Amino acid sequence: MLKFLQTLDVVVFAVPLVDFEDAITSMPLEALKGKLVVEMCNLNAHPKAVLLRTLGSYPEIDLVSMHLMLGPVQAEENPYVTPSWDGRPLIYEKVRIANIPRCEHFLKIFEEARCQMVEMSAEQHDATIADAEFVTHLMGRLLVDKQLLPPTPVVSKEYAALCDVADMMGTDSFDLFFGMFKYNDRAKDHLQKMRDNLSNLERQLAAKEAYLKASNEMKNSDRQRLLTETKLLLQEVVSKGGFLGAAKEPAAEVIKSVLGSSKGTNSKK
Predict the structure, then answer these.
(1) Orientation of helix 17-25 relative to helix 45-54, angle to 10°
(2) Single pTM value for the model
(3) Looking at residues 189-214, what average pLDDT do you find?
(4) I want to staple 16 with a disulfide (CB 3.0 to 4.6 A). Which of 22, 119, 175, 226 is the partner?
(5) How far is CA 14 from the centre of its chain?
(6) From the CA atom positions of the chain, what is the Rg in Å?
(7) Contact 149, 143 (CB under 8 A)
(8) How far apart are CA 65 and CA 61, in angstroms?
(9) How far apart are CA 34 and CA 3, in angstroms?
(10) Alpha carbon distance 186, 80 (integer Å)
């Protein structure tokens, strides 16, 4: 390890958040003197704090926090071909820099790859990115079950987007997701909000279903009552002579009188 580090000018740590501190403390710190140490975790405030705490007594070690938002390799992409960095955001902070030309030369690698260079503090990065990253990965993991998103011959853009999220998040390690949860103070609030929203949707669906069922029962009841009343009216018409001229009054007059008496009875009720 020492011989390997001696040949390097820049040391990049690209490990899950939960493993970052162990990765740093396991290194021979003396061998990092005079080098540029870069952390590339998906959240930066915690790694930055670890670097400053662990390497604080080594001012000759330059420090940079960065997050290259490449995303995982999608299923249709060739995993053996480096994905394009063109237009991908690179968020970075020059935490502590003594050798400015070396730092600029390192960052130029990403500029020449046409990354979208965004300089901001690690704390601002996490405040801006952490919630969106956690919710995106959470939704992807919830939808990774193929029974929820089965393949279909015809799909909408919205369905295709959900499938893409599930496919991308499904390739990431659980440690990566756990790091987003552990080092985001608002992650538990987001989980609770998701539960509340799901419960609210379930209540709305149950209420709508109950309303439609009750409405249908009322319609059936009204229809049955109308049929019963019609049957009684016809029986009364028949008892008064029927429709074939047996009655002293014309049939139309009989029906009119019966309907009139029925209205009167209903109005009294």
Answers:
(1) 10
(2) 0.67
(3) 90
(4) 175
(5) 25
(6) 37
(7) yes
(8) 13
(9) 15
(10) 36
The amino acid at 254: V
SS3 sequence of the chain: CHHHHHCCCEEEECCCHHHHHHHHHCCCHHHHCCCEEEECCCCCHHHHHHHHHHCCCCCCCEEEEEEECCCCCCCCCCCCCCCCCCCCEEEEEEEECCCHHHHHHHHHHHHHCCCEEEECCHHHHHHHHHHHHHHHHHHHHHCCCCCCCCCCCCCCHHHHHHHHHHHHHHCCCHHHHHHHHHCCCCHHHHHHHHHHHHHHHHHHHHHHHHHHHHHHHHHHHHHHHHHHHHHHHHHHHHHCCCCCCCCCCCHHHHHHHHHHHHHHHHHHC
Q: At what angle do helices 187-239 and 122-142 cross, to 10 degrees?
A: 40
Q: Please say whether the beta carbons of 32 and 11 come within 8 A.
A: yes
Q: C-alpha dihedral over 135, 141, 144, 148, to 10 degrees?
A: -70
Interacting residues of 249 by C-beta distance below 8 A, sequence separation 6+:
240, 241, 257
Minimum mean pLDDT range among 30-34, 51-55, 225-229: 225-229
d(CA 31, CA 240): 115
Distance (Å) of CA 8 to CA 12, 20, 195, 222, 254: 10, 20, 48, 86, 110
Note whether 91 and 129 are within 8 A (CB).
yes
The string of pLDDT tens digits covering residues 205-216 is 888 888 888 888
Q: Which of 149-158, 184-193, 213-222, 227-236 has the highest mean pLDDT?
A: 184-193
